Amino acid sequence: MVLYTPAILALSVELAGFPLDRTFENTGSARSRLCGSTIQLGCNLDSGGRIQAVGAKVSACAIGQASAALFLRSAVGRDRATVETTYSQLAAWLTDEAPSPDWPDITKLDAARAFPARHPVILLPWMAALDALSLDAHAG
């Protein structure tokens, strides 16, 4: 099975459209212990606690970059509960025969399911977002 599909490679270049802005009110980060990949994520929230604007700085392989792009392109309008639910569904989808999470285009990462060493980097954007959305998230 091919890991770096054209869809994954195309997604990885989308990150340029989501720069990490120092003015983001909430920030979070996550690091994969397995490969050392990191993501710093920033966001602004609306009055209902939903993501209003988002950006990230990603240091990861193409799989991690693609996962981050998928998260970032659909994060606006999502709240902590939705991100947390999707994270749990994504973790289950990666490790067993659970249905794919309800997140646009997430199945573009399907090829990576056969590579367990890549699972942690796929989860990083959701982990960084949960950190940014936590009650004690530190401002910009």
UniProtKB/TrEMBL annotation:
Superkingdom field: Bacteria
Organism annotation: Qipengyuania algicida
InterPro entries, per the entry: NIF_FeS_clus_asmbl_NifU_N
Gene Ontology biological process terms in this record: iron-sulfur cluster assembly
SUPFAM superfamilies: SufE/NifU
Name of this protein: Iron-sulfur cluster assembly scaffold protein
Annotated transmembrane regions: none
Molecular function GO terms recorded: iron ion binding; iron-sulfur cluster binding
